[in-house]
Structure formats: structure tokens, C-alpha cells
TrEMBL record:
Species annotation: Dimorphilus gyrociliatus
Signal peptide (UniProt feature, chain positions): none
Keyword line: Cytoplasm, FAD, Flavoprotein, Oxidoreductase
Gene Ontology cellular component list: cytoplasm
Pfam families documented for this protein: Amino_oxidase (PF01593)
Protein name: DgyrCDS8502
């Protein structure tokens, strides 16, 4: 269901028109990477390319028809930014966006939460192999091995360490963490790769909230006329949709500075603003009773410091490759790197993180296989 801030619906025909063009433009964006087309730095932005190309398709339309299509396009770009992990698609490199690949198939919500996946992954590993609540504060390496130090005083000497500390933490900590410090090219690479903030707001009501048969309320904000809006809290305009995960539970996502700002607000205040949004877009004066509000705080979480990585203008997949390079002699890599920001195709995703771990495990197995034979 597509609606505007005054509760009026947006016709399916308008959305179809926009989606058809938008799909083509996004495919064109991907071509820049596949064909290695060079793009000047000032134009190296997905949003700039898509918006400019879209404008050429609107030329013959009456003003109001063009305006509503622009609003739908902006909502699509906002949804894209959430997935990309950037604040807006202006921050995502046009020349690199095609390096990311979607896995085929549909998205599923895992019953019992994502922890169930972790339970499956860890079931064959003996419990005593896990050291929980050990915050790594130092990784000292030389030709002979690695010494890992934890904040609680625990240390261990190992032949190899695989570092999966998230990029957001590495950006802040690398100088204090590594001894000797990281090579300059790795520092430059990790500084160039973007690491955004994405947060979710979960709202629970005592009764069904969206109209029967509707699972997603798409919010077509008017960013051109913000002074006439009904929702005064500007951060809320960053929410592109509310999704019903059950009849009574809605999830809204937002990214960028607004997602960061949300972390400072009281959850009750967030709930009230979301209700104002829902009332406006659903054109209702009252809603079912709100039971609970929950808001993630990925930026404040000192073990993530953000959400996931993206490639902004000026960065490239080479930076991801550089970040994934191990430290130490080529025949005896001592510190290896895994995690979503080290996978050159599936960066930003949990499957990318998993595959990067397998890649580094295979690297180590490859070292010892000839010795074992
Ligand atoms: C809102 C949101 C929605 C998402 N949706 C999807 C989705 O639908 N599909 C998808 O594929 N991906 C999604 N992701 C991305 C996915 O969660 C990440 O890509 C994935 O978790 C990355 O795994 P990782 O192992 O690289 O890092 P993490 O999962 O962040 O794991 C890093 C671990 O290192 C630990 N750590 C940090 N610092 C230290 C330290 N100093 N010492 C010891 N341990 C430390 C952390 O506690 C953490 O356990 C989403 C992410 C967010 C924020």
C-alpha cells in the first residue's frame, strides 16, 4: 500500500511506471562496474545518475504527474540506501555499486531470530573452544606468531589469528589494537570504505494495525515541500516504509544521521512520532493501543559502531581486497582478516561474513596441507 503524508493513496499505475524505469536505471548503474566504465569523482554517485536519468523521462509530463513520480523515486532510493547501508544513495559509488551481488531467492525472517543460525554453526564446535566476554585489546604479531591480549588481562600466544572485528571498530581502534601498526595501504583502505548506520524501530500494538491484506505501508514523503508536512519530526522522513511482521508488530528502518540521532531519543518519544506518521499516512485519527517500542542502537554499540560497509565515491573493491590481505610473511600469514567488509562480492551481508571466514580457514588449511601429506 502506497500512501502520502495526507493519507491519500498513490496509484498502482504511478508506482509501476516508476519501478519499471527505476529497475532499468539500477541495472545501468551495475553496468559501470561490469564494463569498468570510468566516472569522474564529482559524478560518481548512484543517486546523481539515477535522478538525472529519471528527469529526462519526466520532461513531457504535466508538473503534478512528474512531481508524484519524483516522490516515488525518492522513496525507492531511500529504500536502496537502507540496503546499501549508506545515508543516501548520493554516498554510494556509481562505478562500484555493481560489484555487490544479491543472492537469488526470497528474503526470509528466521523463526526464533538470527541466533538460530549461529546455533547451527556452533553445534559441532566443543563448548570449551569458545571464550565469551573476552574483549580483544591488543594483537601483536611478528614472523613467529601472534599474541592476543584481552581487556580482562587474558593473553594467548597463537600461530595465526583471524580478526573479524567489525570495520566500524577497526576504523576507531586499529592504532591501539595492532602492534606493529597496520601497513599504510590497509589503513587508507579501511578509511575509504564506508561504514553506515542502520537502525530498526519495532512497534507492537494490541490489535491489527495495517488494513487487511496489507503487509507493507510505503511512505511517499514529499521532500520538496517539507514546510507543509504533517509530521514535524524531520528524522521520521527517513523511514521509507513500515513492514508488518505479524498482524500487530510493525518494523520501520532508517539509516544515516537520522538513524544515529534516533539512538539519543527516548523510546516513548520515538513511539509517539511513529504513531503520528502512521495516523497521517493511514488517514486515521486513532490507532490500536501501543504496547511496546524497541529501537536498535548499532552506532552506540561499542562492538559494532555502525551497521555494515558500503563503497562511497573514491573507494573501490580494491580497498576490500586490501583489507582482506593477511599480515605477516606470505608463506606464514600471522593475522588474517574476515568479516563482511572483507568479502569482495557479498560485502555488507551475513553470507559475505560467513564465506569470508571459510576463505580464511581454507587459506590456513592450504598452508598446512602440504606438511600433513
Ligand atoms: C539493521 C541491520 C539489518 C541487517 N540485515 C541483514 C540482512 O537482512 N541480511 C544480511 O545478510 N545481512 C544483514 N545485516 C548485516 C549483517 O548483520 C552483517 O553483515 C553481519 O553480521 C556481519 O558479520 P561479521 O561477523 O562481519 O560482524 P559482526 O556480526 O558484527 O560480528 C563481529 C563480532 O565481533 C565482536 N567484537 C567486536 N569488537 C571486539 C573486540 N574488541 N574483541 C572481541 N570481539 C569483538 C562483536 O561483539 C561481534 O560479535 C544487517 C545488519 C543490520 C545492522
Amino acid at each position: 500500500m502506497f500512501a502520502r503524508e495526507n493519507g491519500s493513496p498513490v496509484s498502482a499505475k504511478v508506482v509501476e511506471d516508476v519501478d519499471w524505469i527505476y529497475g532499468q536505471l539500477i541495472e545501468q548503474c551495475d553496468e559501470f562496474f561490469r564494463l569498468s566504465l570510468s566516472v569522474p569523482y564529482e559524478e560518481d554517485s548512484v543517486a546523481t545518475y539515477v535522478k538525472n536519468a529519471f528527469e529526462t523521462k519526466l520532461r513531457r509530463l504535466p508538473n503534478e504527474d512528474a512531481r508524484i513520480r519524483r516522490m516515488v523515486l525518492n522513496q525507492r532510493l531511500l529504500g536502496e540506501a537502507l540496503i546499501a547501508g549508506a545515508s543516501t544513495m548520493h554516498d554510494v559509488s556509481l562505478s562500484q555499486v555493481g560489484s555487490f551481488e544479491e543472492l537469488p531467492g526470497v528474503h526470509h525472517i528466521i523463526p526464533g531470530g538470527f541466533e538460530k543460525v549461529v546455533d547451527i554453526l556452533r553445534k559441532d564446535i566443543p563448548e570449551e573452544k569458545f571464550l565469551m566476554n573476552h574483549v580483544v585489546s591488543g594483537i601483536a604479531y611478528d614472523r613467529e606468531g601472534v599474541q592476543v591480549t584481552c581487556r580482562n588481562g587474558y593473553t594467548c600466544q597463537v600461530d595465526h589469528a583471524v580478526c573479524t572485528i567489525p570495520l566500524g571498530c577497526l576504523k576507531d581502534l586499529h592504532q591501539r589494537l595492532f602492534q606493529p601498526s597496520l601497513p599504510i595501504e590497509k589503513i587508507e583502505a579501511l578509511n575509504r570504505i564506508g561504514y553506515g548506520v542502520v537502525n530498526k524501530v519495532v512497534l507492537e500494538f494490541d490489535e491489527r494495525i495495517l488494513p487487511t491484506g496489507v503487509t507493507r505501508l510505503e511512505l511517499i514523503w514529499d521532500h520538496e515541500r517539507p514546510m507543509t508536512h504533517l509530521v514535524p519530526q524531520l528524522w521520521a522522513r527517513k523511514i521509507p516504509y513500515f513492514e508488518a511482521i505479524t498482524d500487530t508488530v510493525l518494523i520501520g528502518w532508517l539509516c544515516g544521521e537520522e538513524a544515529e540521532m534516533l539512538e539519543e531519543l527516548d523510546e516513548n518519544e520515538i513511539g509517539n512520532t511513529c504513531e503520528t506518521v502512521l495516523k497521517a499516512f493511514l488517514n486515521r485519527s486513532c490507532l490500536p493501543k501501543r504496547l511496546r517500542v524497541f529501537c536498535s542502537k548499532w552506532k552506540k554499540n561499542s562492538f559494532s559502531k555502525g551497521a555494515y560497509c558500503y563503497l562511497p565515491p573514491g573507494s573501490s573493491v580494491d580497498d576490500i581486497n586490501c583489507l582482506s590481505e593477511p599480515l605477516g610473511p606470505p608463506d606464514k600469514p600471522r593475522v588474517l582478516f574476515a568479516g563482511e567488509a572483507t568479502h569482495k562480492v557479498y560485502y555488507s551481508s551475513s553470507h559475505g561474513a560467513l564465506l569470508s571466514g571459510e576463505r580464511e580457514a581454507e587459506r590456513l588449511i592450504g598452508l598446512y596441507e602440504p606438511i600433513a601429506q
